[in-house]
Fold this sequence. Notes:
This protein is α+β, with helices and mostly antiparallel strands and 641 residues long. The protein is built from 16 helices and 25 strands.
Amino acid sequence: MLRRRVVQMLVLLIVAGLLLPSSGRPAAASTAALPGAQTAPLDPAELAAWLEPLIEEQMAAAHIPGAVFLLVQDGQIAYARAFGLADLAQQTPVDVEASLWRVMSLSKPVTAVALMQLAEQGKLDLHADANTYLRSYRLPEAFGQPITADQLLTHSAGLDWDLDDIGTAAATPAELVGNARFLTDHPPARVFPPGQQTLYSNAAFDIAGQMVEDVSGIPFAEYVDRNIFQPLGMTRSSFVQPPPQPAGLVTGYEFDGERHQPVPLPLWQDPPSRSLTATAPDMARFMQALLGDGSLILSADAVATLLDTHFTYREGTPGVAYGWDVVTRPGVAAVWKDGGGAGALSRIVLLPEEGIGFFLAYNLDDGFGLGNAVMAEFLERRFPVAPHLAPPPAGAAERGQALAGVYRLTDYSRHTIAKLLRLPWPDYPQVTARGDGRLLVQFGPDAATNHELVEIAPHYYRTSDGKADYVFWEDEPGRPAGFAVGAWVTEKVAWYDSGQAHMLMLVAFAAIFLASAVAGTVIGLRHPPASRLARRSLWLLTATAALNFTFLVTFFLVLQWVVSGAANVDFNIGMPTWMAALVALPLLTTALTVGLLAAGLLGWRRHTWSGRGLALYGLVTAVSLLFIPWLNYWNLLGFRW
């Protein structure tokens, strides 16, 4: 569930994403390829000259124990190199051929190929209601619109962010319940109308995998093995958990600042989205199939459809293919996909027009620092660009003013307690309008993370270096609602919904509840009210305030403990009993608050309070009532995970 070091990682991930080339189909010609852009075959020796020092430098800086890099070109492995150790305790070196990697979300492109195979065979329609083909699980109805396979494969089905969900893994193989049962027991929430926007979702590909199983009549892992892995000769690849051929399995690690800690291999309840293990040569075979005509697994037309853009916020700007993010730079079109988590990160980049692709994997989560550095340098060297940006058009300054404000990533849960991970997020990115019509986007206090934007068309901007496109959009009333750049999507934040505002609310609630609990205790012991009803009401108020304060402080400390990475709790297995008990506390205080209100009304009718006493009692009761919607906003009322 819980991402480590959320505050630092938020800025790292956004900035790293923006350092990559923009995603989508080629945009309007305001950026040109430099004469040095390469179209000749890539020279492995030239690649090694800059790549190997870069990887070694990044590995040392991030304390990454081991890595592998493999590049294919024109149907052959042109370069492959292992770095460091696959297991620190055994001092086992990484081996290009033998090391078995947990590639996590690189499972998704394989699942997309499986679904595309069935579509090519006429067994399903990618644009029809997915429930037409689902037998073991049914998508819930919402928004009066069905969800299609096309939307599942582009993360545009409107399903909630679920990468922080609790209880998505099993402690032992015997506790694996199967994908269909998991989807039924943990149904993904529909939070947006389908086709409206992208929001990364494991469940989308789990449902796609279930479609494969239900339509084919073959268990998903067996179908993929029979129809993708065997034809391609991917003999070490499998979605089965634990891996049926575990020899050479690379150990994943975390680094706590002093030492490396091994991360156990997770047993995911939802295999189609993230349970794939594979060797580098097997991933090379998969890349070669998609870079060639795909004849062993798909037709050439189906491969082209698979890698084409199927969702974009603006025609000619960043988009999503089936299971891939689409990257464009002048003179090159490419797709890429990451896999990350559980002490393992991986990335594939494909340049279909060049016949080139590379696979990178390593065994420590560095927030994709190494992956981003390699990809950015690779594309910059092969396809350097020079910006040719015209001055902002007329009216740009006025339009830019409307876009100014605070934005945040949409990558957070809306319907589970994991939404709390958003609470410590800093109020970035911030968009500022300049007088000349340009926009300044800040991703943190460091000026080095700033992006200057030049308007190309209304709500469509390009960075001054010509490498990234921003698309802004409005809600139905015509107010700025968010922007997308590369793989990142944001939403505009109202002042009262900012992280700072919510932290101020938390502090205010805690201070009022503490003061009320202390004052109620002192008054009850030293100056108790004369009437029995007033005394009982006072103690009810004191207990409610004390419990609310205890919950706020305890939960905030637990949140900081978890976010810091100090908590040795595997939320993937499930919610710890002690934390579930803590989450039950707001249900109790909510019931007590209702009692507070009833006792206050009764005391007012019986005139048991003095004017001052009634005012103070009413104030605390009002604050307690306001606390209830705040708890509900953060999904803290009930067991919501």
